[in-house]
Amino acid sequence: MRSMIDTVLEAWRVTVIAVAASPSDFLGRDKEKKVFRRFRSEIERKNPSFSLSGPDFQTKFGCWSIDLVCSAGSSRIAIEGKFKTIRDGAVPDNRKAAFFDLFKLEQYVASGDYKAGLFLWLTDEPAYRSQASGDSADFSTHEGRTYSGGTLLSATRARNKMPLSLELKGNYSFMWVPISNGSSWYSLVLLIQPYSDIQPVSASR
After folding, report:
1. How far is CA 101 from the centre of its chain?
2. Among 53, 130, 180, 190, who pairs with 69 as Cys (CB 3.0-4.6 Å)?
3. Is the full-model pTM beyond 0.85?
4. Which residues constitute the domain of residue 150?
5. Residue 37 domain flag
6. What is the rounded end-to-end Cα distance, in angstroms, of the chain?
7. CA 163, 167, 172, 174 torsion: positive or negative?
8. Is residue 201 part of a domain?
9. Total structural domains in the chain?
10. Residues contacting residue 34 through CB under 8 Å, at least 6 positions apart
C-alpha cells in the first residue's frame, strides 16, 4: 500500500509541476478534469499495472462520484482533488467544498472498500493559505492550521449538498508546499487511513 501511495504522490508531483509551468493548458470549465487526466496519465506511465477509474468515468459511492480510484489487486485508493486558480473566486465556498471532500474520503475509507484516501489540492490563490473569516471561518485552510477530529465546523450556507454542521473523524494539519522556489503555485496533500490520525504528506517527496 505504501508503495502505491508513493507512486501516486510522485505522479502528482510531476503533474503539479507541469500545470504550474503551463497553467493555460488546463483552464476552462472542465479544468479539474484536465488536471486529473494528466495526473492519471502520469500514474499509468509510472506503473502500467495499476487499474484506474476516473476522472471521466468515475466510480460511484452512494450518490457521490470519486474523482479517481487507483487499484492494485484488492487494494484501492480513493482520490479527491481541487484545482483552483486566482481567477475563480468563490473562495469561501471552495474552502467548505474541500472539507466536504475530506468528509467523503473518510466515508470511503470507513466503508472498508478503500485502504486509504488522498486529498490533493493545487492552487495559485493565496487566500486559501490565509486565515479565513466570515461564514467560512470554521473551514479555514490556512497554512499551519490543525483540525482535531470531532470538532464541529459550522456555516450558514454551502454551495453543494453538504451537512452543516460538518464533523470529521481524523486529525488534519494543513501544510502547503510551493511547487518550486518562488512559485505562486502551492499543493496540499492529506492522507486518510483507517484507525489512525491523518498526517500531512508532502507533495514533493
Report:
1. 7
2. 53
3. yes
4. 2-192
5. yes
6. 16
7. positive
8. no
9. 1
10. 25, 26, 27, 28
